[in-house]
Amino acid sequence: MALAGKETLEAFIDYIESDSLERKHWLTRVREVGFDQVLSEYRELATRKQMPLRI
pLDDT tens for residues 9-54? Predict the structure, then answer.
């Protein structure tokens, strides 16, 4: 896995672990569209909100 992908994955995990409602939302989304798509959506969200990819 590329370093940027690993950082995104780690940030995503930290993000969904921080809030049970976010976790439920994102895990439901994973079931609907798949994990790769969800990571792409998270990356877009983080960029729009200027959230750090690394928490």
Answer: 999 999 999 999 999 999 999 999 999 999 999 999 988 877 665 5
Residue ranges per structural domain of the chain: 3-48
**C-alpha to C-alpha distance for 33 and 31, rounded to whole angstroms:** 6
Rounded to an integer, what distance in angstroms lies between the CA atom of residue 25 and that of residue 28? 5
Tokens coding 21: 């409602």
Pinpoint the alpha helices (H) of 1-55.
3-17, 20-33, 35-48
Classify the C-alpha dihedral 15-27-31-10 as positive or negative: positive
**55 pLDDT higher than 50:** no
